[in-house]
Amino acid sequence: MESLMSLTATELGKRIQAGEVSVREAAEASLAAIEAREPKVHSFVTAADRETVLKRADQVQRQIREGSLKSPLAGVPVAIKDNMCTEGMRTTCSSRILENFIPPYTAQAVVNLEQAGAVIVGKANMDEFAMGSTTETSYFGVTRNPWNPEHVPGGSSGGSCAAVAAEECSYALGSDTGGSIRQPSSFCGVTGIKPTYGTVSRYGLIAYGSSLDQIGPIAKDVTDCAVILEAIASHDKKDSTSIAREDYRFTEGLVDDVKGMRIGIPRDYFGEGLDPEVKASVLAAAKVLEEKGACLEEFDLSLVEYAIPAYYVIASAEASSNLARFDGVKYGYRAEDAGGLHQMYKKTRSEGFGAEVKRRIMLGSFVLSSGYYDAYYLKALRTKALIKQAFDRAFEKYDLILGPAAPTTAPRLGESLGDPIKMYLGDIYTISVNLAGLPGISVPCGLDGKGLPIGMQLIGDCFQEKKLIRAAYAYQQTRSYERCASLKKGAFGNE
Amino acid sequence: MSKQYETVIGLEVHVELATKTKIFCSCSTEFGGEPNTHTCPVCTGMPGSLPVLNKQVVEYAAAVGLATGCQITQYCKFDRKNYFYPDNPQNYQISQLYLPICRNGGVEIETENGKKIVGIHEIHMEEDAGKLIHNEWDDTSLVDFNRSGVPLIEIVSEPDMRSAEEVIAYLEKLRLIIQYLGASDCKLQEGSMRADVNLSVREAGQEAFGTRTEMKNLNSFRAIARAIEGEKNRQIDILESGGKVVQETRRWDDNKECSYAMRSKEDAQDYRYFPEPDLVPVVISDQWLEEIRKKQPEFRDEKRARYKEEYGIPDYDIDIITSEKRLADIFEETIALGCKPKEVSNWLMVETMRLLKEKETDASDIRFSPAHLAALIGLVEQGKINRTVAKGVFEVMFTEDMDPVSYVEEKGLSMVQDEGTLRSTIEEIVKNNPQSVEDYKGGKKKALGFLVGQTMKAMKGKADPAMVNQILLEILG
Amino acid sequence: MAKNVITDEVIEYVGILAKLELSDEEKERAKADMAGMLDYIDMLGELDTSQVEPMSHVFPVSNVFREDVVENGDNREAMLANAPEREEGCYKVPRTFE
After folding, report:
1. Are residues B284 and B302 in the same domain?
2. Is A180 considered catalytic here?
3. Which of A47, A353, B119, B465 is within CB 3.0–4.6 Å of A357 for a Cys-Cys bond?
């Protein structure tokens, strides 16, 4: 029998509502998959305790039976990226410094999901504090790409994407500061949305770059993503940057019709550095949309290469301040026998943070320090304004922008960390979207010669998620979800 | 000292605002709770928590700005000030650097040397830190975050003051303005008003400022005056001996009457301010500003003029009554209940001030209500009790705020109105004091006072002195 | 060869600001990394931004407030539960001043 985890979240949700599958059966399927596949994939930092999961499943089942829970996600197992606080369940940001942190409250996005009847099966691995593109900077060890364990799943939401691709859960939440949902979605062959800044509450999301961070859904297809986004998005009074949107009915975008949709293809996204196989695959996907009636046009977006340095200044500066609270006083790791206060701070933080996090904290502290603020930080904020203007101009002409999610498919483990700048260049197509606060989606559009997935990215104007969803949905109607090769081959063994 | 020196002083005054909740979370600001009982994820810097601004803080800050002649920044923002210290849970303080809410104001002060304006450079909003309790025995400190996140405004003056007298006049002026606004109780001792003193000295006639130092930990007017004197002398001594003043932060120890540098290698004093990404800008529209302006109360100078005109009480009384918002409020409310201004003023000036001093409390702590004071005044006016009894009743009222009418009744303190009883008591007194009667008749008018006193004593104070006088005179012929 | 040169003093200073203590080896690596990043960031100098205001918030949202109403009760236990060291209802730290 095929695992219930091979269904999409909404298919499983439907069967649960119809009484064909019990919530407990769904939970058991997820727990079994986790037990079988974790040794090979390692998507999770913390797998939820079996008793807790089953208890929760029974509670949701009761509510469904009583008729008080009708959400399409009720009873469907989910993985939560480990930078979202979950009351009573360890939340580490994949860092030693939060190794033993048990939050006293739950992130609003997760609260919203729980209200929709979600059953949390674990906390997904990630790059430490979401700083990285490979999930190799996790203190708890790397996550492997389910398509090929010699390759990385991408990052920083690598655990979330791997868990979905390896069918350890039905869907996951990730967060995206510079591409951290879209790039690993692309590497793992799943669909992920980074919503417009302010759409999903950041309350309880452990901040990396506050002005850039957004939580979003990761699932097998865009239908799931639209349903999940509808569940997690809300105007939250606890997050001052949360926006009261006029329309949260994202599933209305699930329409197979792109006739007349104007799609801009930035030449800057198809130049030097782009893998030819990725290029061909993304352009083929664009062709599909054109055949369905969309109007494609090439254009020059401009400023693309400046987004990376601007991003690293802004994100590192914010991170240097956001991560100052990890000091061994209130929670988390504290170095032993450190001596005086300042020694305790230094020892705790030096032992608690990994190399990439320290690198960014140092850079961020430097660019904000006396004498450099104008030259670096303000310059980056001005560049950000220019990038926003460039997108504004593009969206006067186009409904969407189409390009690759990443210049390559997933690199091999251990290849990326040695040269930080080269690694940062991998974010070139995703990063400017965060600077401009825009929504973006990554949709699987094929495999390369090595059998690794390729993702197409669609970028919308702010608050235009429905257009993204519409185009992605229309595209996905032309092809079925491609299960990851290891699952097809049974490489994870008998379950 | 061969040369003449001038002291140049600027102040950074922190005032805790009288909001019910903290600046960025809905924890109570109440004073004196058990450690960490007024805390939540936001004010303990939990990962993932986010600040949301308390609207009342903006209103109070803008109100103080308007009352001190500042321009209100109608588009203002918050910034993060980054530094590590255990009382600062996020290791950054949310404050305002680039666009503070108020700028370019000033207040008029008056000292023996006349009037002058002390300029206000800016006023900004920020959050208070927690409290550290030092354990002498095991080299540790304990952190209590109850005060963490209590709203503050920091009022930064221009370096316009030249003496401790001016500094104290300025602080008094600020205290009154803010108290009148109800924006804070401004108690130095309890820390709801705190002043850091920036001080430099320069040779008389020299235009450029000298190098300044900043002094912290000043929690009384006396400490401020002594610290200014001490620091001035320290700097002059350095200059006289050919040295250079180092720009630094110093901590004043009022017990030892000296200051010492707070610098350490670990204090880089580089706060890396940048715009707070978790908070959106505050836009104060003309309309909102107008509403805040309309709510401005009558301040002391206006009250002084009106009291003189409306109530005709002496300047001396006016000065004392308007020196505390609470006194002025009680004064006006008691008059509104129908009492004579001078009568109310007397109770405040004499008895109230005496008891405040005796009990070492502040006018803002006064507990008796204007209604009860009016009732007490009524009892005296109606001749129900005499002044001596009234003073005793007031003393109880001062601590317990009970209704004086029922109290007088319960304790049987009303004056004896029955002339027969009084007359027979006086006759008895006259009979028992033949010497005094003789003295009086012999022209020693003082002896009458003694007889009145004896009568009051016998009546346990419950007689109308006028009536006693009258009957005595009758009997003595 | 990096154009920016990060000296030992700068790394030392940034370490004080960020409360990080690096081993000699880490210091050398950090110097090279930071110089490389700054060279890369210097690319922004090619852009004429003289006519642009720095943009800290992407959307022109303003005036998000709370009313001044107490909603939180006593959360002490929950807040202290993760403290590495605690005493008498407080967080305990090495002595703060000499």
Report:
1. no
2. yes
3. A353
Give the dihedral sign, CA B456/B462/B468/B472: negative
DSSP code of residue B87: T
Residue A18 has phi, psi (to 5 degrees) of -80, -10
Q: What percent of chain B has pLDDT over 90?
A: 67
**What CATH number is given to the structural domain containing A133?**
3.90.1300.10
Residues B45 and B194 in one domain: yes
How far apart, in whole angstroms, are the C-alpha atoms of residue B475 and residue B32? 63
* A160 has catalytic annotation: no
Interchain contact C18–B (C-beta under 8 A) = no
**Among C56, C89, C94, beta carbon nearest to B139:** C94
Catalytic residue (choose from A30, A81, A185, A201)? A81
Across the interface, which of C54, C91, C93 has its CB nearest the CB of A378? Answer: C54
Residue B47 has its nearest CB partner, among A85, A239, A317, at A85
- Mean of pLDDT over chain A: 96
Indicate which CATH number applies to the domain containing B454. 1.10.10.410
Q: Is the pLDDT of residue A374 over 90?
A: yes
Is position A242 annotated as part of the catalytic site? no
Q: Of A488, A474, A405, give the one whose Cα is nearest residue A221.
A: A474
Q: Which of C6, C7, C31, C52 to mutate to test the interface with A (most CBs of A within 10 A)?
A: C52
Whether B216 and B251 have beta carbons less than 8 Å apart is answered as yes
Domain C8-46 grouped into CATH 1.10.20: yes
Average pLDDT over chain C, rounded to an integer: 93
Strand pairing partners for B115? B110
Per the listing, tokens 């000043």 go with B218
ipTM: 0.96
Supply A350's token pair.
């030096």
The total domain count for chain B is 3
pLDDT higher than 80, residue B361: yes
Q: Is the minimum CB–CB distance between C49 and chain B shorter than 8 Å?
A: no
Q: How far is B8 from chain C (nearest CA, A)?
A: 30
